[in-house]
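Two quick folds needed for the group meeting slides. Do the first one here.
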Amino acid sequence: MATLKKYNLAGKETGEITVPDAFKDVSSAPQSIKDYIVALRANLRQWSANTKRRREVSHTTKKPHPQKGTGRARQGSLVGTQFRGGGRPFGPKPKFDQHVRINKKERRTALRALIAEKIAENRCKILEESKMDQPKTKEASNFFSALDLSRSVLVIDDVTEKERGQGNENFKLSIRNLPYTTYRSATTISGYDLIKAHDLLLTEKAFEQISDWLAPKGLNGDKE
C-alpha cells in the first residue's frame, strides 16, 4: 500500500496518508502527455503579429533614381521589399482563432500520470494545513529547508467554500518571495506547471480535492 508522509509547518512528520488508486499504475502514453503540453503552450499564443506589405506601406511612389543612364539596376519605388522601410514579403498576419481543444478525458489522464510520476519518484510531499496567523516568509523558508525543497517547487493549496480563507492567503504571501516556487490552487493546476517542477507540495485537503477530481469518474460523477 503506497503512502505519503504528512508534515506540519514546523517541518515535523505528523502521519501518513494513503495514495488513492487513481495515482497507482497510471498507464498514459508519453505521446498523450506531449500532445497535452503542446496544446497548452499553443493556446497561450496571441496570434496578433502583423507586418505591412507593399500596398500597406505609407511611402512615396517616386522612383529612387532614373530608369536609365546611372548604371544601376532599375527600381520602381521605395516601397519595394529590398529597401529599408519597404514592405515585408510573406510576413506574419493576424490569424483566426487557433485554439487547440483539449479533451477532458485526455487532460485528466495526463494530470494523473504527471502526479503519479512525482509520487513514484518520492518527489511529492503533503502539508497538513496551510493556515497561518500572519505572513511569515522566514517560517515558510525554514519549512522548505526542513523538507529539502531547494529546487523548483510547485505548491498546490486547497480551495475553501468561499474562494480562499485568510489563512491560505497568508501562506501564499509567505512563499511568494521564495525562489523557484510556484503557487497554484487545486482548481488551477496545469500540466505545464507539473512538468516544470522538480518537487510537488500539496496540502492534505488539496490532495483530496485533486484526487476526487482526477478519479476515473471525474467531477460530479461524469464518466470519462
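Then this one, please, same format:
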Amino acid sequence: MNAPGGHPLPRGVSGKLAPFGTTIFTTMTKLAQEHGAVNLSQGFPDFDGPEFIKQAARDAIDHQPNQYAPMPGLPSLRQAIAKRFTRDTALPCDPDTQVVVTAGCTEGIAAALIGLCNRGDEVILFEPFYDSYRAAVAMAGASARFVALTPTIEEVGGKRVVTSFAFNAAQLRAAFGPRTRAVLVNTPHNPTGKVFSREELTLIAELCVEHNAVAIVDEVYERLLFDPSQPHVSIASLPGMAERTVTLSSLGKTFSFTGWKIGWSVASPALTAAVRAAHQFITFAVATPLQHAAAAALAREEEAVGGLVPMLRANRDKLATALSDLGFAVHVPAGTYFICADHTAVAPRLGASDDQSFCMALIKQCGVAAIPPSVFYNTPALGHSLVRFAFCKKPETIDEGIARLRSLR
C-alpha cells in the first residue's frame, strides 16, 4: 500500500513484537464493558487501597517537590524496600547499590531482561506465564525455552478437582543449556495461583548455580497467601542464590493500587547495575509523589495486608465452591487472586470447544468476563481446557458474578 504521494507507507509493528498482538487484558476488559459483564477477567480490584496511602500521596503533591526523582528511586523508598527485603529473606541489602524503583513490576521485568541479556541468550519460562514475559524476552533479543506447569485432575469427594500445577524435573533440567542466561519464576503464580514449594525452588536454584544462570523472580503476590502449609519462599534466600537473583515486586497487588505502577527490583550490585542500565532509558524515574506514598505504605504494610487477605480468602472460597457446584474442576489457589479451573464438563452447555470460545460465550450468554489461559502458553493447546477468574473484587461483585454463572445450570 502506498501513501498519497506514491511512496510506500512505513512499516508498522516490528517483527519482534507483531506476534504478540494486543494483550488479552485489554481485549477482555473492553468486551466486558461492551456487554455489561461482571469483569472477573483483568486482575485489578474494583476498590481502592487504604486511605492513609492516598493521603500520603496528597501530602507529597502539596508539600514535596513534584519533579524528577533520582533515577534509582527516592532514597526513602529504597530504604523501605531494602528493610522489607532483609526482613523477609534475612539477607543484607544496601539501598544505594541493590534497589531500583520501576514503573511497576512489568517494567522491572523488562529492564532486568534487557539489561542482562545479549542476543542469542536463552531465558526459561514456565508456561502458563504472565503475557508480558515472552514479549520482554523478545525485546531483550533473547529466545525463550518453555517448561510446562501441568494440571493434575483427581476425583475428590465426588467432584473433579485440579490438585496441582507441577513441572517435570527432567523437562526443567533439559531446558538449561550453554546459552541459558536466566530463568523467570513467578511465585505465587499468575494465572494458576500456585505457590512454588521450597523443594521446587531448590531444584531451580541448583540448576542456576550449575549453569551459571540468573533467576529473575516476580513476587508481586508474595503477601497474598491463603494456606499456611504453602508459605512463600524467596529463591534469593536459598544457598548460592543471593548473588544471582533479581527479586521483583510492587505496590499494586499488596496495597490494591494497581494503577500507580510503583514496582522495584532488588539484586546484587552487579545485577542491579544491569537493571539500572536499562531502566534509565526506559522510564528513568517514576512518579515522585507516589514514591513518597509507597514509602508510607511499606511502613504500615501489616495494616493493609491484615484486612485484605481475609477478604480475598472469603472471595476465593465462595467463588471456588460455586464453580465446583457448576461442574468446573477447580484449582483452589494457595496465593494470588486468581482461580484457574478446567471447564471441560461445562463448555458443552455454551457450545464452546476451547477456552477462547468458552470465554466469549461466557460474556455473551452469562454476562461474566474471564480470561482464556491459552494466551499464556507457547503451546496454546495446553490451556484450551482452562479458564481463569479473578476474585480481587468487592464481595458484592463476586456475588453478582456467581448469580450470573448459575445460569450455566
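Slide caption for protein two: The chain is about 40% helix and 15% strand.
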